[in-house]
Model the fold of this input.
Amino acid sequence: MTMMTAEQYEESLRHLNLKVYMFGKRVESPVDDPIIRPSMKAVAETYALAHRPEYEDIMTATSQITDKKINRFTHIHQSIDDLVKKSKMGRLLGRCTGCCFQRCVGMDALNALSIVTFNIDEKYGTDYYKRFLAYLEYVQDKDLTIDGAMTDPKGDRRLPPHKQPDPDHFLHVVEERKDGIVVRGAKAHQTGAVNSHEVIVMPTIAMREEDQDYAVSFALPSDAEGILYIIGRQSCDTRKLEKGLMDRGNLLFGGHEALVVFDHVFVPWDRVFMYREFEFAGQLVEIFASYHRQSYACKVGVGDVLIGAAQTIAEYNGTDRASHIRDKIIEMNHLNETLYCGCIACASEGHREPSGTYAVNTLLANVHKQNVTRFPYEVSRLAQDIAGGLMVTLPSEDDLRSPETGKWLEKYYRADPGVPTEHRMHVLRLIENLTLGTAAVGYLTESMHGAGSPQAQRIMIARNLNMQEKQRAAKKLCGIE
Amino acid sequence: MRGRRSSRFSGIHPEGSMPVKVAVKYCGGCNPEYDRIALVEEIEEKLEGRAVFVSPGSGDGEVILAVEGCKTACADLSRFEGLPIRIITCREDAHRFIREIEDKSSR
Done:
């Protein structure tokens, strides 16, 4: 096998024995759970689109190991063109799903490890890169979805890992055996964790020698003994338990996050990619973060959906010709396309690392993500402005279907006589979903904190600026020797 | 319509007796400016009897129709080296392609 279909992907998840908890109870079949299932369907789109000729050029690539056609989500970038296509893939899938499709984080973890394992070997003569390539071939051949797990709970933010009152607040090695290591800790906010076949663990911050037990990276099957998942709540999540679909806003897709607990978990040596090489922890974090900041190209696609919804409700409301509405739509597009500029630019200005992997431009990736922490909020504000207050005062689908109340909703919530009231309700629910419902987790708060909170990008922007060259240019023009 | 025109394509089925085999190759569709699938369906409908549409991977295409979502036209056409290629980036390009096939088959 090299590329799974969406149906094969769903079936493959059924064979996993995941320990998933939600609302205090074990979820026996995450694939069939009505709250989790839309998120699985979003990942399934990454498989489905790869088989459709109209998306093949973006969704697939050629493996540098086997020369076989593979899903781009398992690909190691071999050129600038690959990096650009990754950004375009994010927009495409964001537009197709209107939510977080979860699979980018594993791709970013693979690419970061392809660089850092090589670099560790160069310094220490270890064989991490060889192990990594064997693992990569397995992932590509099976077309697996991977959870890239970086964020530790972090405990007291004033203290480094080794000084935490609870040592498990950063994932760490607790035992070294002949055949592998045993780890304990947790990873928070793990997007798409229970839709993943594998989990790749990486350290969350740069580390010093005292933290070397925490400088560990490895891969495990997602149902390995000792791993359990606690699903995070999302605003309006239980609407997915209701009979009707309209009040979900997005009828087809969604996302999920989970706290992933590693309770005394064994990792065999062939799955270990970093072990106590503390000076490479920061490098892995920075390279992964840059890739993942590029990955926020997806928000451009989700922005496309929200802009389309805002234009549609303006037409349904009969306000689309008002000059201020037109101007707001222009502003939304301006912001969204500015985001697109960033993700294309950081890819186009990428470079080749010693391992052969192409990396994005760090400065531009961080600038892009910094914009992502802001612009979707403004795009959402404008969408809510255009939608009007009905977006949050609209009665339920059940009220529309009720013989007692439906006629009143039909009568009083009809605007344009040519547009069914139901259509108006549908698009209002979609805007609600994207700006304050389940999808706002991905479009807004994930835009803020995912791949690092805003200050993390500002630190990286400061670190990657070449201020001396700017000063030299200025001084030359104004006559300072 | 952009694209290379070769004499080989001009010489196909001059009698108009055989439908032309058209292989459709899409770009990746990241941000298309029109519905590419709907446009290809429209082309297929209008050229019924004059063209048959084959998979680009089959090697049977006599002409490659590159359906590009925008003017960036990034579809990877490297494997079609030597074959006549027609590129469409909008409806007008599609209409020109339809006319070209119609002209050839009516000669």
Notes: The interface with chain B takes residues 53-59, 85, 88-89, 91-92, 95, 304, 340 of chain A (CB under 8 Å).
